[in-house]
């Protein structure tokens, strides 16, 4: 069975937004997975920008992320990381407690996470993410992905969250 990471790729336009990051920007990525996007982001923001990686799976943060960073000739300590869940009630406080992390970020990447959250819980996520953004910060989200494998209900390797229909995302406009 292949992992979700092996079966889907972030849409090109979302990936290109990461490439538009400027030097010195600060980036928070939730649900890092193998760390491809935060690694790309860290390469773009350079040594003056901060990259923080959050994932509920400690294996991604302890094994996959360092390997991805090393493959791009970055030190694994160049990106701060913490194992936690975006749905935790104290998510914002726990992100701010990470040693070396900031209180707010220029960009928050939430690629593919929203499709794994039940529809009635999605609205709770945006105020948390907004609290971690600078006044002109940007949340980059995605409600779909490009799949390299058959994700029909008849395929046993299809993750359950991809079998249920997903409503269109609503924009959250903070104060």
Automatic annotation (TrEMBL):
Protein name: Uncharacterized protein
């Amino acid at each position: 069975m292949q992992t979700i990471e092996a079966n889907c790729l972030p849409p090109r336009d979302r990936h290109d937004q990461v490439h538009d990051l400027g030097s010195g920007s600060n980036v928070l990525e939730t649900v890092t997975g193998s760390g491809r996007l935060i690694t790309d982001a860290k390469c773009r923001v350079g040594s003056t920008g901060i990259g923080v990686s959050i994932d509920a799976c400690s294996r991604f943060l302890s094994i996959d992320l360092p390997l991805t960073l090393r493959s791009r000739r970055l030190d694994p300590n160049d990106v701060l990381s913490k194992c936690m869940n975006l749905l935790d009630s104290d998510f914002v406080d726990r992100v701010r407690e990470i040693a070396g992390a900031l209180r707010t970020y220029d960009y928050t990447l939430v690629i593919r996470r929203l499709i794994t959250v039940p529809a009635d819980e999605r609205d709770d996520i945006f105020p948390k993410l907004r609290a971690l953004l600078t006044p002109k910060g940007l949340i980059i989200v995605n409600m779909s992905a490009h799949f390299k494998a058959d994700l029909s209900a008849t395929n046993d390797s299809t993750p359950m969250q991809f079998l249920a229909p997903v409503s269109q995302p609503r924009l959250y406009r903070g104060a």
